[in-house]
Design a protein that fits this description.
Layout lengths: L1 H6 L9 H4 L4 H16 L8 E6 L2 E5 L3 E2 L2 E2 L3 E8 L3 H9 L1 H7 L3 E11 L2 E8 L8 E12 L10 E8 L13 E2 L1 E12 L13 E12 L6 H27 L7
Parallel strand pairs: 8-10
Antiparallel strand pairs: 1-2, 2-5, 3-4, 5-12, 6-7, 7-8, 8-9, 9-11, 11-12
The protein binds N-((E,2S,3R)-1,3-dihydroxyoctadec-4-EN-2-yl)stearamide.
Length: 256
């Protein structure tokens, strides 16, 4: 345990100063902490229905509508061997990896760098006939949080994405309809201690992932097509993303 704790002292423990000074900071702080709490509630209560299962992956949804649009919340859990929560969150957050795992993407721009742990993205996504193409403008924040429910456990990492506004990128002005999203990825690393004083290898580590998402399509989209897209695209995303993480990390030193 001491050995593991020592490994994490050099990583970021608090948000960076430039993020705290930003106009969006109070919202980023509030939504990120709310999402962390929501992700950790589990799926026992709240009417979650299992809709996809593959190995250790489980995906649940709740059928919900807002102003006649499908906004079904999604919650997924997965267990991935050989990667840490920090590594998985870094890959989910960093623009450099996005095209390697995000299959629905057509284009991505970082419109503002708030700080090294907080970016604002503008993304356009592939069009699904017969609906209009969608874009999304959102801040993305990554941080390490200590586990207050289990102070002895290894730290949690979270990435939270939430829609925002920007005067230079108003919604619904071109061919795209803007979607509104709140997404979080919460990861925790578990270590199966190696014998004696052996160093920790990738085979000794497991990452537990919780992914939550609510996407409002922002404008007309046929409910049946939308629910079929959810059912197909979310499992595809989580499988593709986690295998991408394993592949990216396998020959690199472990980042706790
Ligand atoms: O969390 C994920 N990715 C992050 C980084 O990109 C980020 C982005 C979320 C994007 C939200 C979805 C945007 C609209 C997508 C349009 C669908 C394209 C499908 C193309 C198929 C060829 O947080 C991982 C996101 C995984 C996304 C799964 C699909 C979600 C579907 C949501 C549909 C929303 C409206 C679509 C309107 C058209 C419907 C007929």
């Amino acid at each position: 345990r001491d050995r593991l704790k020592q490994k994490s002292v050099s990583v970021l423990t608090t948000p960076t100063m430039s993020a705290i000074e930003h106009r969006l900071w109070p919202e980023i702080e509030k939504i990120t902490m709310e999402q962390l709490h929501y992700a950790r509630l589990g799926v026992g209560a709240g009417g979650w229905q299992l809709f996809a299962e593959d190995g250790d992956m489980r995906m649940y949804r709740r059928e919900e509508e807002a102003d006649g649009l499908v906004v079904d919340p999604l919650k997924a859990c997965h267990v991935v061997k050989g990667v840490t929560g920090h590594e998985v969150c870094e890959i989910f957050f960093s623009p450099e990896y996005r095209t390697g795992w995000e299959a629905t993407l057509e284009d991505m721009t970082v419109v503002e760098k708030v700080s090294k742990d907080t970016l604002i993205f503008l993304q356009t996504h592939k069009r699904i006939w017969p609906a209009s193409q969608r874009d999304a403008l959102f801040w993305s924040h990554m941080r390490r949080v200590s586990d207050d429910q289990d102070p002895d456990a290894h730290d949690l990492w979270i990435v939270c994405n939430h829609s925002t506004e920007h005067p230079d990128y108003p919604p619904n002005t071109g061919k795209c309809v803007r979607v509104y999203l709140t997404v979080c990825l919460v990861c925790q690393t578990f270590i199966d201690p190696p014998k004696d004083e052996d160093e920790i290898k990738r085979e000794n580590i497991t990452c537990k992932i919780t992914y939550c998402s609510v996407v409002n399509p922002g404008g007309w989209a046929p409910a049946s097509v939308l629910r079929a897209v959810y059912k197909r695209e979310y499992p595809k995303f989580l499988k593709r993303f986690t295998s991408f993480c394993i592949d990216q990390c396998k020959d690199k030193p472990i980042t706790f």
